[in-house]
Structures are given as C-alpha cells and as structure tokens.
Write a structure and sequence with these properties.
heterodimer; A: 265 residues; mainly alpha; 11 helices; B: alpha/beta; Rossmann fold; 2 domains; 6-stranded mixed sheet; 4-stranded antiparallel sheet; ATP binding (chain B); ABC_transporter_ATP-binding (chain B); nucleotide-binding (chain B)
Chain lengths: 265, 298
C-alpha cells in the first residue's frame, strides 16, 4: 500500500463519507427511536393499508422485537441503497476518474508497481465500508441500549451487520471492477449504477407479490438473508460468505485487469 | 551505452493511426529530439516508454529494464513531463508538488525550490485556476525536481511557455546535459530541438523517417528569404543572379530558398538597394520534403 496516496484519498473523500454517515445516522436513530410496541402498531396499521408498497421495501412482516423492528425497517433498503450510492460515487473517484482526466499519469509515474497503486485504492474502499457498517452498528446498538435497555439481541444484530458488510463488499467489488476497466468515468458510473439499481429493483419486484417471487434468484440481494442471520442460520452464513468472496474476486479481477491493460494517459 | 532502447515497436490503433516498426535509441548523456508533426506518433511512443501502454510487437527498455513490466523500477530514476498536463485539480500547485515529491519518495524539495525560482513560479494558487503556462511550469518542476532522476522523458515540454521561459527551459536542458543526464524530448517545432539536442529522431505518420545528427539536419534546412528592392529593375536583375529565385515580373520582391549559400545571397542582394527583408524558416513538412525529397511522401 502507498501511504501517501492513502492519505490523499482520506483528504479528498472524508467529506463524502461524513455526508453519507450523517444521512445514515438520521435514519438509524429515527427508526430505532420509533421502536415502541404502540407506535409499532400504528406503523403496522399503515403497512396493512398498503401492503404491497411496504413489502416492496422489505418492510412486510416487521416483528415485535427490537431486532426484528430495526432490521425490518433499516436493513431492507435504507442501509443498502444509501451505501450503494456512496459506493458508486467513491469507486468512480478512486480509479476511473484519474484515468479519465489523465492525472493517473502522475500516480503511475512513481517508483511503485501499478498493482500497489490500485490496491491502495481498493483497500481504501474496503476500509471505509467497514467503517460505515461499524458506525451504523455501534450507533443503533447505543441508541437501542439507551432507550430500550435489554431489548436488543446484540449477537443477532451483529450477525446481520456482518452480512450487510458482505453485501457492501460485493457492491464495492463490482463497482471497483467497473472503475478499473473503464477509460471514461461516465462509463464506470453507468455500469456501477446499473449494478446497484438493478439489484435493488429486482429485489423490490420479487417482494411485491407471490407471482414474482422467483425473481429473487436474479438479484445478489437475496444472498443477504436478514432473518436467517438474525437467527444464526448456517445457510444464511454461507450466503453471506458468497457475497464476501464474490466481492473480493470482482475487486481482484478489476485490479488484475488494470495492471495488464493499456491506459489512455 | 544506450539508456533508452526502442526496438521495432508497433502499436496499431487502426485507420493508419499508431506507430509502426519504430526503432531508435538514446545514448547515455545524450539529448535526443523526437520530432514530428501533430499526430505523428510521438506521444504514442512516449506512452509505451512510460509503461502506460504495451506495444503490439517489439520491445522497449530503459536502462535494460522492460518498460511495461518493470515500470515501477524504471521510475526510481526517471523524470517525466506529460504532453497533456492533467493534475489533481482540487490541490494547490504547492500541494501537488509536495504530493508528487512524496509519491516519488523524495526526501526534500530543495531542487524543486531552485526550479520554481528559475521559472519564476509561485505555485500557491489552485491548479484549477492556473493558466496553461503556469501548469506547464509546474509540470516541468515535477519532472526535474527528483535529484535521483538521471533520465528524462519530456513530451512537448515548452507548450504554453512564453519566449523568455522557453529560453530558461533551454538553459535547464543544457545544464542537465552538462550533468550527464539522458534526455528524450518530443516536439513539433524544429527550433526548439535545434538549440538543445545532439541528435533528432524524425517521425511521420507513425513511421520513423530518420535519426540524424543535429548538425546534418541544420545543414539540410533551408531558410526562405523574401527581399524587397527599391525598384523593379533591381529585383529583376537580382532574381537572374540567384538560383531558384521566384520573382513576379514588374514586382519589387524576390523570394528564394537559401541554405549554405546564405553569404553569397546576402552579398549579392547588398549590391542593390534593399527596402525590406523577411526571413521564414521552413515548416517541418517543407523540411521533410527537402531533406528526403519527394520520396518521403510514401
């Protein structure tokens, strides 16, 4: 890893990270605070009034425990879509943008291998994803502990977050790969956006009604099994492992391709 | 010893763009001009030397190391000035110079400060707001500031510089040459190369036309002189004396190509009353035609 470049990326991207952490904080805290059996009833009434809409957002049968409530409302879409957008923006900035505007020439005109430079960018991405997941986990746990002491199944919640990180690593890997293989940053953004939006959209369709249930096999989001992870189900662990593995493989593919290919600098 | 070796490289981009079977080398301590019109393949060759792109066939090496596979090692002792200056726009000039210095693992910026003084550069502003000339100066500082560098690859180094700064640049090249550094610089202007280089490699439409000693090229280069006389009769008489002079009947102006016969040309013109004299050097294209004859067209 190139420490100078890593520091440069921290300096260039911390604002982006803070903005997304801010947005995630608002939702995490709000939803967690809303946990209240009575308020839960009114939310459920709302859900009953437009079941398809709630189902599409993965908020169909939100349970009664704090864990079920939080994961039901946050881990269905909010904590996937917002980090997804963050990943699209960041991955594009980390590689494709430098190639597109030509400044990659300066990053490569250094006594380091190409691999080391692009690996630094990949590590930066992964570390911010870990940071983002850890931040949300700690924040929700803290708010839960403060307002509803003893209500949270901490172990189950940590398992769900381990799964969430797997999903973000997968998105990160896919988008990073796109960033590595594209000469123009607009192509990189287009592919990344397509991957994230497609995945989320297909999941929403699959949840909207039984007719479309089988569509769920066409989205990687299915591999993030919130209920299974909450329960500590072995199959859910396996699926999460597939997400991690696929993400790392995609990232590796991007890095290898970047090292071998012609760059328009 | 050859420091930079380019061995029969071909990089075909289709539609006759790219470089085809280009082969030349730069010796240790030599300044070699890489001369050719826009789009001739200069930058394509330099990109391959930098390891940004791979040749379809052939090989390139710097100090015996393969330019693509061992680019990282080569960079330890290489200074590079890109033809299209692209910095990280969010930084200020000084931040960028510091960043590049750290990326190159340099211990201090002493040499960079010397260069900034030399080019009267104040790099404190944002790069985004800088003029082309300012950016070019920053590029030059970044290329030359590493004391560990002993080979330089410069792609159109004087683009955007005013004549005064172009002169400073020539001084810089000459002083680096004195220190024994090896330099490859590309240009589409003969004058720029003329003042600094020992030899020139000339490329045209992706193919290497020639690698010649600078002295020989200078000899082959003609100047076009346009002399205006006081009277038409003088012009007529003068035109008759000078070979290959063009003259319009009744006009007062004589145009001629002058090479080695400059002295006799001037002395002959001196016999009449000269009202005006204009001097133009051949463009690179004209030069090719003269140096290599019409055959250069193929």
């Amino acid at each position: 890893m190139n420490a100078t470049l890593f520091r440069k990326e921290i300096k260039s991207n911390w604002i982006l990270l803070v903005i997304f952490l801010g947005v995630l904080s608002v939702y995490s805290v709000m939803i967690t605070m809303m946990f209240d059996p009575k308020l839960g009833d009114s939310l459920r009434m709302m859900a009953d009034s437009m079941p398809q809409m709630f189902a599409a957002f993965g908020m169909a049968d939100v349970g009664t425990t704090l864990l079920e409530f939080v994961t039901g409302y946050l881990y269905g879409i909010l904590l996937i879509a917002f980090p997804g957008v963050y990943i699209i923006i960041l991955t594009n900035r980390l590689v494709a943008k430098y190639v597109d505007n030509g400044s990659m020439a300066y990053l490569l005109a250094v006594p380091d291998k190409r691999r080391k430079i692009v690996l630094t960018q990949g590590i930066f991405l992964l570390l911010t994803l870990v940071l983002m997941t850890a931040y949300c986990t700690v924040l929700i746990l803290a708010v839960g502990k403060m307002l509803f002491p003893g209500e949270m199944d901490t172990a189950g919640f940590l398992r769900v977050n381990a799964g969430l990180l797997g999903l973000l690593v997968f998105f990160g890997g896919a988008c990073f790969c796109a960033s590595c293989i594209c000469n123009e940053s607009k192509n990189s953004s287009a592919i990344s956006t397509a991957v994230v939006v497609y995945s989320i959209l297909v999941q929403m369709i699959s949840q909207a009604g039984e007719k479309f249930e089988n569509v769920k096999y066409a989205t990687p989001l299915t591999l993030f099994d919130v209920d299974g992870l909450s329960a500590g189900d072995g199959k859910a662990w396996l699926m999460a492992a597939v997400l991690y593995l696929a993400g790392i493989l995609l990232m590796g593919t991007g890095i290898l391709r970047f090292c071998k290919r012609d760059l328009p600098l | 010893m050859d420091v930079i070796e380019i061995n029969h490289i071909t990089k075909d981009y289709g539609q006759k763009r790219g470089v085809f079977d280009v082969c030349f080398s730069v010796k240790e301590g030599e300044v070699l001009g890489f001369l050719g019109p826009n789009g001739a393949g200069k930058t394509t060759t330099i990109r391959q030397l930098m390891g940004f792109i791979k040749p379809d066939s052939g090989s390139l090496s710097i100090l015996g190391r393969d330019c693509f596979r061992e680019a990282g090692r080569i960079q330890e002792s290489l200074g590079y000035l890109p033809g299209e200056i692209a910095f990280i726009d969010s930084m200020s000039g000084m931040e960028f110079i510091r960043f590049v210095g750290k990326m190159k693992k340099m211990k201090n910026l002493g040499r960079a400060e010397e260069l900034m003084d030399m080019f009267e550069l104040n790099p404190s502003g944002k790069l985004k707001k800088m003029s082309k000339g300012m950016k070019q100066k920053i590029g030059i500082v970044c290329a030359f500031m590493n004391p560990a560098a002993d080979t330089f690859i410069l792609d159109e180094p004087t683009g955007g510089l005013d004549p005064l700064m172009q002169n400073r640049f020539v001084e810089l090249i000459l002083s680096e040459k004195k220190r024994g550094k090896t330099i490859l610089m590309s240009s589409h202007m003969f004058e720029e190369i003329e003042r600094t280089c020992d030899r020139a490699a000339i490329i045209r439409k992706g193919k290497l036309v020639a690698v010649e000693e600078m002295e020989k090229l200078k000899e082959g280069r003609k100047k076009i002189i346009e002399v205006t006389f006081r009277e038409a009769a003088m012009a007529e008489a003068f035109a008759a004396e000078v070979p290959k002079a063009s003259y319009q009947i009744g006009g007062k102006r004589v145009t001629a190509e002058v090479g080695k016969n400059l002295d006799s040309f001037i002395k002959k013109a001196g016999a009449y009353t000269v009202v005006d004299l204009e001097l133009r050097t051949q463009s690179l294209e004209e030069f090719f035609m003269h140096f290599y004859g019409e055959g250069a067209e193929q």
